[in-house]
Each structure stands twice: as C-alpha cells, then as structure tokens.
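Justification of computing resources. Each target in the renewal requires a structure prediction run like the one illustrated here; the chain below, 731 residues long, is used simply to show the kind of job we budget for.
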Amino acid sequence: MRNALVATLMLSSGVVFADEGQWQPYQMPAIADKLKQRGIDIPAEQLADLSRYPMNAVVGLGYCTASFVSPKGLVVTNHHCAYRAIQYNTKPEHNYLDQGFLASSQDKELSAGPDERLYITESVTDVTAQITANLPAEPLARYEAIETNKKALIKECEADDNYRCSVPSFHNGLEYYLIKQLIIRDVRLVYAPPKSVGSYGGDIDNFEYPRHSGDFTFLRAYVGKDGKPAAYSADNVPYVPKSYLKVNADGVNAGDGVFVAGYPGSTSRYRLTSELEFASDWLYPVLADRYQRQIDTIEAMGANNQNVAIRYAGTLAGNANRMKKLNGLLDGFRATDIAGIKLAREDAFVDWLMQTSKAQTELISQLEVLIAEYQAATQTSFYFKNAQSSTLLDAANRLYRLAKEKQKPDAQRESGYQERDMKMFEASLKRIDRSFEQSVDKTLWLQDIQAYQSQSHKVAELDKLLIYDNHASLEDKIFGMYSLTGLTDAETRLGWMDKSPEQFENSADPFIRLAVALYDENMALEKEEKELAGRLSIARPDYMAAVIDYYKANDLPVYPDANGTLRITYGMVDGYQSRDGLYKQPFTRLEGITAKHTGVEPFNAPQKVLDAIAKGDMGEHKVESVYADPRGFVCRLFSCLDKPEQFDSVPVNFLSSVDTTGGNSGSPVFNGKGELVGLNFDSTYEAITKDWFFNPTITRAVHVDIRYILWMMDKVDNAHNLIDELELVRN
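Resulting structure tokens:
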C-alpha cells in the first residue's frame, strides 16, 4: 500500500519525468529550475562555465571519463577504464591485474603507456555557420565540403600542438561545435586495487544489481618542468590543475539530488522506429554472435597460456561487456514494446507536423528511403569488412592508405592520415605488441573469413586469397601468411610509414600484397558510404529541426544524442522495481562482499578485504543510515509511518536516476554542492535500452560509493599518502 502511494505521488508530481537528458554544459541555465527541484544548489551558470569548478576538473580519457582530485594532478577513474594502464605494466613476475598496485611515493608511479592521454576540455564553440555555409547540392561534394570546413577549423585550433581539436555534429548534423582540449601526454599509474575488487562479480554481475564492485583506480598527470604537456620523462613534474574536486567523505543518502559530468559515447533516441527494428532484428544478433565466438576462443586459448590471458585481458573484458549489453538490449526490446512506443511518438509527430507545416510531412518518408539504403549497404559490407579483421591486415591496410594519402597536400588528406595524426598513428602500430598473439589473431581471423564465405556477397580480390589446392587447407593458407610476414616486428611496421605506394605494390609480404589487392574495393565502398552520408546530411538535419520544434511545443526535453562530448546529467539517489519483481534498495553494504564470496573468480574477494570486513573495522567510513527504505526521499516531504532501516555499514555501490551510457564510465558523481560522492561505472540490466528510449521508472545508473573507496584506501591498502592529498569535507 505504501509503495503504491509513493509511486502515485511520483507520477502525479511529474518527478518521474524530470531526470532525462544528457545536456551540453551551456544548456544548464535553461534547466536551472529542474536542477533546483532535485536539490542541486550549485549555480547553473557555474556548471555552464568550463573554466570554473567543478567542470574544469572533469577530464576525458578518449574512451572513459576521469577527474582531478588533488592539486598534484591526481586523477580518479574506474578500474576498467585504467585496464590498459594496468595491463601495460603487468608481467608474469608482477601481475598487477591480479595483485593490484600502490605507489607509496611519486617516484614509484608507473607510466600508463606511451599512448595514454588525458583530455581537458577548455572550450566549446558553436561553428555551425562555418561548417554549413554554401554547401554544394551534390551529395559527395557536400560531404567532402563539410569535411574540408572541419579540417580548416581544426588546423587553426591546433596551432599549438598541445591541443587536440574536433568538430562533432549535434542533432544529426543540425549543429556543429568546435571542441578544444588540452592533451596531457604523460599519465602514470598510482593505485589500482586487484581485479578481484575492481571487477568483483565479473560478467555475472555486469549490468546487474545489487553490486559490490570497487571499480576505481588513481592515475596522475605529469607535464614538463615548464608546466606544458610533454611525453613521458623522469624529469617531468605533476600537473597542477586549474581546480580539483572536493571529496565529501559523508557521501549521500537516498533521495539526495546528484549530477554526473562526463563523456557519454553514443545514444540513438532520435532515430526512427525502422532503425531500432533493424538493430533488433539483424545488427545486434549478428554482432552478439561474433562477440560470443571471440569470447569463447580467447577464453579457451588463454586458459593454459598466461601470455595470451594477459595480452587479451582487455579485449576479453570489452567483448564480454559488449555481449552483455547487446543481450540486455535484445531482452529489453522483447520485454518493453519500445518500437511501439517510438512509432506512437512518430505518429504524433506527423499529426502535429500536418497541422503546422504540411510541406514538411514528407520528411520521414524521405529519410526512410535513405535509411533503407544505408541498412542494405551495412548488410552487404559487414562480412567483407570483418574478413579484414586480422590485426596485421588492418595495419597493412592503414599503412598502404597512408602511403596513398601522403601523395596529397596535407589539407586534402583523409582524417586520420594528416600530419596531426602521425603520433597517434605511430602509437597504434607500437601498441599492437601489447595486445597481439599470433595464435589467437589468426584463429579469430579464420573465423571471420569462414563467416564471410557463408554469405552471398563476395569480393573477387579477397576470394583469390581463399583459393587453395588439394595439398593445403584454407586454415593452412591463412596461418602460413603469419610465418611469411615481417609485420609481426614493431620496427618493421613503423618502417612502412615512410614507404611509397610503389614499394607497397612491389612487396612480397603477404599482408601487404593483400592490402594492395583490396585497396580499390575498400575505396569504392568508402566512396559509396560518403555519398550516402552526404544525402543524409541534408535529410537528417531537416528532420531534426522539425522534431526539436515538436518537442519544444510539447514541453519535452531537447538535448542532443550522446556523441562523446562533455555532458551533464542529473537525478537522485533511488532504488527501483526490477524485472524480477523485487524492489532494489539504492545502497549495498560491505557484508554483501562476504556473502557473495566463493573463492572462485569472479567472486574471489582478496583475503585482506574479507579480514577487514570480519574485524568490523569501518572507522569513520561507517554510516548508521542512508535512508534505506523504499523511496526514502518521500520521508523528507511527508510523514512516514515507518522509520528508515538502520544501515550500519560502509556503502559499497549505490543507484541513481541520472541519464548515462558508455563513455560515462569513471564520471564523477556529485552531490548538490558539487562535491565528489562516487564514480559512475555501470547501469542496471533493465536500463540498457536507454540508448534508444529513456524509461524513468527503471533507468538506474550504478556508482561506486566514495565511502567504500576511502575505506579501501584507509583500512585495506594503507594508501594514506593519497588520502592526505585529497581535500575531504563533511556534511
């Protein structure tokens, strides 16, 4: 009865609809009233200013989010976001993935790797007019003009090579913004718990709740003695950030307002129903099948080979995460008629459009034609592209493309092959050695080639490779290429960066020869994709402009789909009713770690953690209550018949209604004052479909509680040198 009352209160008050949106920082003043309603007291204007606290302390890793937490460049992010840095330093003689790592002083901190970066966003500028002015009508020429305009702005922005600039589109090409980011090139590993803490529960608990994961790691940013970004050097000094986050050691309670800042990767909420159906019916099942095949292969080959296990640890974890997410999406589409919901919204949009601008009623049908072409092209090229998945063939393809692009003026080269890209290009070639093993690579490649052979679309130049005589199998022929190539050697790979197209075309290396043979087909395919993108660059912005007008007319939130740029999302600490009918409390406790412990991965908590829990040594990190009753925030507004349950432990993970997705991993979770109270690291299984549709009743993000991080540092790993760096505050 009480739960029903609470649900009614939420629905009638409109609170349930309040938390949707991955907002650009400049939009904060426009939603200031919503932030206030959630108890977020930090001024909206302050959040909109990237030069002020706390936004200037939020940084990107290129694939995750992190934040500065000390004046000495100390950075906190997720354990799984720092996986590459831990893997880079892991050797059979000191397995930091299994054992964890703590530098007792700065001189013992380890390089995170030559290609690890921190990106600090300093400015975001609307450049829509510069990108879209006077574009040609012909689709391919239009696409190329947009790219040319982007490159010109990027070149001007990157006059100082300490900056990396980009011009992503927003609202499917309706708007463009120039993003300017300072690059920190010397990143070091400071403190990482063992993976039995950082990914406690592993794939079994991934996207599930309750969780007990210590998904955190500390890094440090270093620069030259002049304070400017520099490559790794023993003489470098810690970077002094413009600001760093205050850490609230008291954390949050259920019902508290919170917000998250980070770099969400991609969502599809404005895509059409037909696009969701294509993903559900074809794309996601095909991708899931391939990921599962790779997972099974890597696990089997790594079971008795520690070198394989270490080198493919990141690949395996990434594929397992993608696989779980795809299954969650497919289950979510079956459990909730999201396609039906989206179609109903589209019908309402068309009805509104007919009443306001009949001339625009063909927008959807015109877009549907182009989408159908795109989907057909995706199906046609999918297996051919995967048939080039060998790490060595991929390197050969990129190297030959580089030789071709170098024949052009730099401004006319394809993005990724300009002079600005060469350091990262070189780093990617070097990185191969850390995540490549011949036996695994050729097995995975053979599987993709066999999948290519099983479908109807064929490419003559690739098929020539697959012709073999009676004395050799396809497997023998494919595997034989690895014994004849020089690309397994890093110096040889790097040497190809300076060779001419003619040298490629005269090479006897089997992977180089195949790259040359496939070049024309790959370029023809790319040209078709660009031409279609040019046509979509007209249709999608027109459609989005009308959709935005419709949303505004109906008082619906208008924010762009996620595209890897800095965003802010807000909500509150709150549980939810799960798919199994149980109410999931918003917090988990230390004792849950012991309860789940089996001694077998992934529930193999370190003995030192179990011992600390058994002692009951929780110190000031222990809390008596976090308002653990269902919908505890209502008790702050109304008289409750029952009292909140006593928590009496250290909170490990907690839930909130903030709107996040991939890329938000490692994002700081702030309380209403803008103080750090946790790290975002996951979503619940029911929330996976939020990439397509935000359902406020079940959409929950999962966070590591700052009190658990501090407890691990204090009571388990004795990381007091790092605690002393933090600015701890209390409620």
